[in-house]
Amino acid sequence: MSAATQRLIQAAIDASKSAYAPYSNFHVGAALLLDNGQIVTGSNLENASYGMTLCAETVAIAKANSDGQLRAIREIAVAGGLAGHVGAAAEPITPCGRCRQIIKEVADLTDTDIPVHCAHAGGYETFTLSELLPHGFGPANLK
User: Fold this and answer.
1) Angle at the Cα of 123 (from 122 to 125), degrees rounded to 5?
2) Which of 2, 53, 56, 92 is the most buried (most CB within 10 A)?
3) pLDDT tens track for 7-45
4) E strands along the chain, which residues?
5) Which of 143, 109, 111, 114 is nearest to 128 (CA)?
6) Do 82 and 25 touch, CB atoms closer than 8 A?
């Protein structure tokens, strides 16, 4: 594992500690690597009205956007699991469908097939967005 990827995954694990997940107890952290080397993080935010819940990836991307850094996103790391066990799952924790669609918007803006590093007990697996969301719907579909 490269030092940069390890740092990004650790940032996602650390971000999961800030998750607000009283209903599922499933904490997720996301970390975005920007083109200047900066890391932006987010954690999931659950709501009693489940449809209002915000995923960690969406929080991190919205945070980057509010800082004027949406087009600077180059890589993403995701780590999740029950509180106290984030990153300990046997299989990689991947972004949900909604998050994949949000990431697709960034990928299209940056013309990058964004790598998504997904943590698990043995380390991580890296998927490109096109692997996670084949035939995704994006701005080109609106023309």
Assistant:
1) 110
2) 56
3) 999 999 999 999 999 999 999 999 999 999 999 999 999
4) 26-34, 39-43, 73-82, 115-120, 123-128
5) 114
6) yes
Of 46, 57, 75, 125, the active-site residue reads 57
DSSP for 27-65 reads EEEEEEEETTS-EEEEE-B--SSGGG-B-HHHHHHHHHH
* Closest-CA residue to 70 (of 78, 60, 79): 60
Nearest CA to 37 out of 74, 65, 67 is that of 74
3-state secondary structure of 109: helix
Amino acid at 30: A
Amino acid 114 reads I
Instruction: Decide if 57 is catalytic.
Output: yes
Q: Using alpha carbons, select from 87, 89, 69 the residue that is nearest to residue 78.
A: 87
